[in-house]
């Protein structure tokens, strides 16, 4: 089948494109603002990418157009598809009809940690010899691609609560036919489509209603929003983690790089790994219990974690000169920012500085919904520098203490200031859910060049 995808460079749609290609379909796609790593993956897969949404880019013999949820009425290509009566569907609908039927689907949901936990679960299954398929909203550290068909019935999917398409306002995850569900956490987000947390809880309840009686829902204990979701009705097995009486993690290093898994008072194993932060330990418990439901012993899963690598843009180290380190991270919600920076701080000595460089880019951020929580979220950082978007409608400069950082309106100003501020012992963490105008890579290249010149 000849398939054309509108919005192909989004993490979900780009992954879907690779799966469609692997199934033997002819795949092309349109998007704007194309940037790595997804553009690199699509090119490597032999998928034609067209910049912009000129209807002329849609091949004349297209049999199906898959429309991403970023597309809206008024988009030239969307209008062309509707006017010409070309068959179309959403990405999640295509997954439901062409890929997930008859498979054991593990859906990883939650406000934070979906990409890391889904990657972790896929790697555990891989190490157990289960050859899973997967679709992950990022580039996993242990796999060369963000999606693959797999060679078994098992399929891991990152389950996003964002809406499906302009013509289907249900959350994406209601299409995924899950048997195993991870619900890692639940906070208010996506203020552009949800009025309040209760509206998101309703969508999570729709997900719960889809799980068969023999299926299982894995979640942390004492998470009020998730408990409210379950209170609306649940017909499946439930497994909680985080309480000493049940499944839980104990840290043996302050930064979480050494930990053990316990079931009550029984220790099942210990892991030394390259990750840090309490948020990653929560992800561990969720992935281990999901894998257990799918047939992997906890001891096997722990062994897999010793070789686990975070997905790209999850505290991805772009430069390490021995004196300065530069990281790129996807965190875009105050809670994710806070836990990520706390994990970084725990791995540092007292004479090192932590510098956070942030771009409040998501629709929720631009609306100012979380603005009061942003300054406390960077409390673990010694300095924070912010790139403010045009038309943002509010300014962090009104909230940010001068001694803790500055706001900038252009990338060039921010880059110049960073270069002037940098000193030995600094760890610089860039945080954005977009490309940050290429700033992280540019700064990392400059840091490496400085180090080379010093040693010349």
UniProtKB/TrEMBL annotation:
Domain Mur ligase C-terminal stretches: 313-434
EC number: 6.3.2.45
Species classification: Bacteria, Pseudomonadati, Pseudomonadota, Gammaproteobacteria, Oceanospirillales
One function term, GO molecular function aspect: UDP-N-acetylmuramate-L-alanyl-gamma-D-glutamyl-meso-2,6-diaminoheptanedioate ligase activity
The entry's keywords: ATP-binding, Cell cycle, Cell division, Cell shape, Cell wall biogenesis/degradation, Ligase, Magnesium, Nucleotide-binding, Peptidoglycan synthesis
Organism annotation: Oceanobacter antarcticus
Catalysed reactions, as listed in the record: UDP-N-acetyl-alpha-D-muramate + L-alanyl-gamma-D-glutamyl-meso-2,6-diaminopimelate + ATP = UDP-N-acetyl-alpha-D-muramoyl-L-alanyl-gamma-D-glutamyl-meso-2,6-diaminopimelate + ADP + phosphate + H(+)
Reported function: Reutilizes the intact tripeptide L-alanyl-gamma-D-glutamyl-meso-diaminopimelate by linking it to UDP-N-acetylmuramate.
Name of protein: UDP-N-acetylmuramate--L-alanyl-gamma-D-glutamyl-meso-2,6-diaminoheptandioate ligase
């Amino acid at each position: 089948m000849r398939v054309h995808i509108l919005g192909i460079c989004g993490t979900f749609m780009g992954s879907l494109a690779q799966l469609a290609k692997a199934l033997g379909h002819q795949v092309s796609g349109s998007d704007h603002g194309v940037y790595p790593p997804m553009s690199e993956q699509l090119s490597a897969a032999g998928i034609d990418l067209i910049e912009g949404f000129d209807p002329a880019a849609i091949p004349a013999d297209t049999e199906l157009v898959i429309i991403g949820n970023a597309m809206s009425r008024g988009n030239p290509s969307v209008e062309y598809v509707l006017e010409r009566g070309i068959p179309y569907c959403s990405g999640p609908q295509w997954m439901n009809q062409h890929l997930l039927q008859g498979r054991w689907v593990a859906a990883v949901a939650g406000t934070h940690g979906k990409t890391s936990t889904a990657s972790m679960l896929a790697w555990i299954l891989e190490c157990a010899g289960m050859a899973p398929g997967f679709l992950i909203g990022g580039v996993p550290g242990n796999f060369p691609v963000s999606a693959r068909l797999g060679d078994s019935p098992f399929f891991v999917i990152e389950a996003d609560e964002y809406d499906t398409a302009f013509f289907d306002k249900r959350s994406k995850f209601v299409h995924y036919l899950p048997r195993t569900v991870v619900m890692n956490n639940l906070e208010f987000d996506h203020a552009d489509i949800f009025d309040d947390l209760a509206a998101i809880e309703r969508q999570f309840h729709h997900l719960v209603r889809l799980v068969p009686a023999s299926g299982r829902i894995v979640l942390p204990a004492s998470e009020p929003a998730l408990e409210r979701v379950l209170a609306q009705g649940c017909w499946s097995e439930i497994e909680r983690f985080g309480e000493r009486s049940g499944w839980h993690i104990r840290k043996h290093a302050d930064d979480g790089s050494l930990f053990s898994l316990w079931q009550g008072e029984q220790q099942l194993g210990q892991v030394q790994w390259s990750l840090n932060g309490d948020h990653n330990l929560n992800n561990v418990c969720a992935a281990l219990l999901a894998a257990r439901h799918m047939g992997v012993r906890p001891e096997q899963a722990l062994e897999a974690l010793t070789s686990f690598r975070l997905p790209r843009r999850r505290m991805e180290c772009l430069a390490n000169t021995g004196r300065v380190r530069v990281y790129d991270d996807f965190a875009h919600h105050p809670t994710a920012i806070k836990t990520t920076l706390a994990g970084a701080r725990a791995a540092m000595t007292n004479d090192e500085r932590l510098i956070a460089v942030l771009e409040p880019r998501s629709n929720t951020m631009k609306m100012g919904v979380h603005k009061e929580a942003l300054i406390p979220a960077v409390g673990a950082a010694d300095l924070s520098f912010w790139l403010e978007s045009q038309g943002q409608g509010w300014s962090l400069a009104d909230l940010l203490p001068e001694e803790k950082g500055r706001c900038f309106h252009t990338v060039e100003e921010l880059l110049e200031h960073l270069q002037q501020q940098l000193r030995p012992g600094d760890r610089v963490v860039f945080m954005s859910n977009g490309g940050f105008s290429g700033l992280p890579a540019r700064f990392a290249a400059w840091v490496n060049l400085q180090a080379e010149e010093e040693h010349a």
